Amino acid sequence: MNEEKFTIRFLSVNDIDQLVEFETYNKENFEKFNPTKPDSFFTREGQEMRMEHVLAMRMSDLAYSYGIFVEDELIGTFDVFQVERGAMQNAWIGYCIDQDYQHLGYATAAMNQIIKLAFSQLQLHRLEAWVMPSNEQSIHLLERCGFEKIGLAKRSIYVHGAWQDHLIYALCNEHYGQ
């Protein structure tokens, strides 16, 4: 990672214009491993709707959406979602890094900070990530950050016009950093 510092914070309505630019610029790259989004998603109105949903989910303790910023420029998003409380204290984690900032260490550094936030501030016990077997970058990121492959969800998510298999990775707070 360059000597540039990055910040992590909750996404807000003030980020809508940057989200439009970020999602539009990276659309082709992100759609390699994610479900196709409607054209409306890549508009200001689409991101306003997204932000309404993000804020409602955070207020309900169901999901938390973070932006990764370098010098106030949005370079990535991380989502801690499908939060389950009670006996489970579990959530899923998802992430997207701007194609111009990949392979520079930002994803690893940000993932480690998000994990710490999830285990301390959100008081989660376990994080889970699903990744397509062909997404080698994401697999390496998860493994670098301590996630362990625990299984395979066959034909689990509809991507590129077909049901795709996904590897399941998990990390428990007592195993983080070991």
TrEMBL record:
Pfam families xrefs: Acetyltransf_3
Keyword Transferase: yes
Signal peptide region: none
InterPro entries per record: Acyl_CoA_acyltransferase, GNAT_dom, N-acetyltransferase
Gene Ontology cellular component terms for the protein in this record: cytoplasm
Domain N-acetyltransferase: 20-174
GO molecular function terms noted in the UniProt entry: protein-N-terminal-alanine acetyltransferase activity
Keywords carried by this UniProt record: Acyltransferase, Transferase
Family note: Belongs to the acetyltransferase family. RimJ subfamily.
Database matches in PANTHER family: [RIBOSOMAL PROTEIN US5]-ALANINE N-ACETYLTRANSFERASE, GNAT FAMILY, PUTATIVE (AFU_ORTHOLOGUE AFUA_3G00765)-RELATED-RELATED
Name used for this protein in its record: Ribosomal-protein-alanine N-acetyltransferase
